Amino acid sequence: MDKIINRMVSTIAALALSIVCLMTFPFNMSGNSVDGAEMNSETAAEMMAARINEERAALGLRPLYIVPYLNDVAAVRANDLVTVFDHKRPDGTDVADLIDTSIVDYSRAAEVLARGSFDIDAVLSAWKNSSGHWGYITRADATHIGIAVVYAPESDRKWYWAAVIVNMEDGMTLPDQKMPLEDAIVPTYCGDVNGDGQIDSFDLVLLNKYINGKVYFNDAQIEASDILKDGVITSADAAILRKYILGEYSKLPLTVDMLF
What we know:
Elements (H helix, E strand, L loop, with lengths): L1 H23 L9 H4 L3 H18 L6 E2 L1 H16 L11 H4 L9 E8 L4 H9 L2 H7 L6 E8 L7 E9 L33 H11 L7 H7 L9 H11 L15
Parallel strand pairs: 1-3
Antiparallel strand pairs: 2-4, 3-4
Helix pairs in contact: 8-10
């Protein structure tokens, strides 16, 4: 009974906040970014989930598991937004009606929406600037998330995001749940930042983007990027990687003491 009541309260709260969120949400976001164009939608969704977890970690909150089923629910909502940008679906139902409780037996559910950009930083910043959206994203007892972004070239805003966030009782797991970007890229060796088994200019470009805060790296990528093995990743690592690619060094990693 408590779970049913919580679901009803969650739905009512979502409806109450939807008008505020939609009125205050900054729609004039930038178009597709260069970085965004290099990613497919599935990767972008996982990267957004990873960034959300970084923000939650900074607040001392536990990370959210990403779930394929919830990704599918989010994809339905993202496609809805092409027609109607609202927390109500075109048929008058809402996200709670989409979730099969035999699969996700949640106690609370919410969604956050965005449109007009593929740029992860721009969308995340917009959510952070909306107290309603950010309240859902940083809810302390939230446990799982599904994210989708769709491209509708004939629409006025082109890109549409939906994130579905649920609360499960402590200890409950969902099918195929995982941490975002877990095992997404597995480098073969030091310097193979993009995990394609080679060390070339593509790795250098990606490393520089990471250093400039433009992309997310998983733990394996971070280890492969620490060219100097000094525990930090800086422009010095990028400089050594560049020299390796140009043939000035014959092996990696190259520790600091080997430079002198």
